[in-house]
Amino acid sequence: MDATPLALGREVEDAIRAHAREAYPHECCGALIGREGGVQAAFALPNTTEEGPRRRFLVRPDDYRAAERHAQTLGLDLLGFYHSHPDHPARPSQYDLDHAWPFFSYIIVSATAESTGALTSWRLRDDRSAFDEEPVARSTDDATPTADRAAGVAGDR
Amino acid sequence: MSNRVLIPTPLRPFTGKQEVVEVSGATVGELLADLTRQFDGLKKHLYTDEGRLRSFVNIYVNDEDIRYLQKEGTPVKNGDTLSIIPSVAGGSSAAVDEELPSLTAMEIKRYSRHLILPEVGVDGQRKLKAAKVLCIGAGGLGSPVALYLAAAGVGTIGIVDFDVVDYSNLQRQILHGTSDVGRSKLDSARDKLVALNPEVKIELYDTALSSENALDLFRPYDVIVDGTDNFPTRYLVNDACVLLRKPNAYGSIFRFEGQASVFGLENGPCYRCLYPEPPPPGLVPSCAEGGVLGVLPGLVGVIQATEALKLILGVGEPLIGRFLIVDALRMKFRELKLRKDPDCPVCGTHPTVTELIDYEQFCGVAPAPSDARQPGDNTREISAVELKARLDRSDRLVVLDVREPQEYQINRIDGSVLIPLGELGQRYGELDPSVEIVAQCKSGVRSAKAADFLREKGYRVKNLKGGILDWIDKVDPSQPKY
Questions:
Q1: Mean pLDDT, chain B, whole residue set
Q2: Which of A156, B281, B287, B430 is deepest in the core (most CB within 10 A)?
């Protein structure tokens, strides 16, 4: 896997961290929308898991399609998804690996009751054997960062 | 035959960036086989090593999920469009299972009838072992709940109670036996539960549940089982569960009728959605006043225990948004639909109760702050000893017993007149207004209401403090208590 960094605007990162804090002690999740390796918007989605939202997240097909439509409206692409690991490090678990899609960037942010910690991004190897960490480039002067929360807070639906 | 498959973003790198691919076949399975033949790299992302579609791969024929059709055997017509739509899943631990404790060989023996149920199985039993359930009360409801949860292998059972076992408990509180009378209910409960299942951890809280301690007590537990017998505690348990978003396996009993539901969860109603306000104090008699069929708490408690187990296992349909009414005399189970009230003060969209309040006051049973304690107010009450003295002096007065006839059969004050509270409205004319009345019931609650009523009608009335129970304790120990 190449090591092209994933560009992440400050406002998008802030939106992801705010969502993780808000959802704590549950995991939050959402879509990453942008173009050519640059995330321009975080699209919050409801965590619909039925297995315990402290340790799991699930984006259902309908919400996936909503994220895709939203990307299209912005003239952008779906680049991946983010989720939080409450009280766990920002590293993908075996469960993350077992459920990963290729190509997508998976941003993981660790969260505690007080704040959020490390934010990392990962991509699945084509043979599904492991994740590779991809560097995250924090751009401070992104031209069009939009921290889009239009879909509402996770769990709101 | 030709069909189109819509390829989702993450799989397009494998189809040469094509969003739509032409495939052919008679079923969904055949179309997908053709797809993976054309594009080699796709197979391992769509299928597991065992050749099953991965759980996060959703296939739609036109707009229908094939899970609800004939899965991969779903036939396709010429022109049908297949869509591959991702679910995206993940989570912080490798598997929820990995955090669960494993079962010992002895536990596998003990729980074998659970383990062969597909709905429980080894993983379910491990969930039970990891689970913590808090029983509020070790009485009529708490007894069957705690016994069955311990037998089922719930790893930690907490019990909150501060009461002592009394003979009158034994008719229904099957945690306690004759030799336990006089012991604390917690000690008695622990002995029974440990004897039943030493694998289970029993946590005892020798305290009255209060607004000060409820949140801290509830926090470590997964499910709260409400086995309380009074309104202030019931509202307290409800509110604490809603605030902590913990399921409340609720049950209550009276005479021959029981109720059960599951409250407190975000997606369902709470006790306040059903009863926003408590009934006026004294209107709904307690089991001590109204009686209860001994087996009824068994019936209702077992429903609560069943709901607790289902919630832990994540199986079946929990009693959320449904209110079950059990009529033991007719042996009928009725179910009412309960809706979440958007205006509910605790679980509604704009809650006004955001912390625990004073529930004694809320339910109107708090000791009246000043009223009844006014100097001179003791004219409204009389103690058992005073009454005895006045009767001995042959003072002119009538002792009015407002209990039910079946209670009067058990014990009574010699010479008392029986008019049950419910009949007083029609029958008070039988009483001579020129004679002072001492109203009396079992413990003084019903008779206080009777006294208030008669005073309004112009009678001179005193209420016997502590009822016949106090009378027996202080004046006439020869009579049985109930």
A1: 91
A2: B287
DSSP-based three-state secondary structure for B166: coil
- In this predicted structure, what is the pLDDT of residue B289? 78
pLDDT (tens digit per residue) in B449-480? 999 999 999 999 999 999 999 999 999 999 98
Q: Residue B364: is its pLDDT beyond 90?
A: no
What's the number of CA atoms in the CB half-sphere (13 Å) around residue B9?
24
Q: Which of B135, B273, B287, B347 is catalytic?
A: B287
pLDDT-above-90 percentage for chain B: 77
Contacts of B96 in chain A (CB under 8 A): 51-52, 55-56
- Order of strands, edge to edge, in the sheet holding B322-327? B201-205, B156-160, B132-136, B223-226, B248-254, B257-263, B322-327, B332-337
> Is the minimum CB–CB distance between A131 and chain B shorter than 8 Å?
no
Closest partner CB to A50 (pick from B60, B65, B314): B314
What order of strands is seen across the sheet that includes strand B397-401? Answer: B381-382, B461-464, B436-440, B397-401, B417-418
Residue A153 lies in a domain: no
The residue type of B418 is: L
Quick check: bond before B220 cis, omega within 30?
no
- Is B441 annotated as catalytic? yes
Decide if pLDDT at B226 tops 80. Answer: yes
- CB atoms A49 and B91 under 8 Å: yes
- Interchain contact, A56 vs B86, CB within 8 Å: no
Nearest CB among A83, A87, A128 relative to B90 is that of A83
What is the number of domains present in chain A? 1
| B55 to chain A: closest CA residue | A99
> Residue A152: inside a domain, yes or no?
no
From CA A83, how far away is CA A56, in angstroms rounded? Answer: 9
Question: Looking up tokens 């306040």, which residue turns up?
Answer: B272
Host domain of residue A89: 6-139
Nearest residue in chain B measured CA to CA from A48: B89
Q: Is A2 on the interface with B (CB under 8 A)?
A: no
A77 touches chain B (CB under 8 A): yes
Judge whether A103 lies within some domain.
Answer: yes
For the segment A137-149, what is each residue's pLDDT rounded down to a tens digit?
Answer: 986 544 444 444 3
CB B411 within 8 A of CB B400: no
pLDDT at A138: 85
The amino acid that residue B201 corresponds to is K
In this structure, is residue A155 part of a structural domain?
Answer: no
Half-sphere CA count of B252, side-chain side, radius 13 A: 17
Q: Which ipTM was obtained for this model?
A: 0.86
Pick from B9, B41, B58: CB nearest A126: B41
- Per the CB < 8 Å rule, is B88 touching A29? yes
Q: Is residue B269 pLDDT above 90, yes or no?
A: yes
Domain of residue A60, CATH code: 3.40.140.10
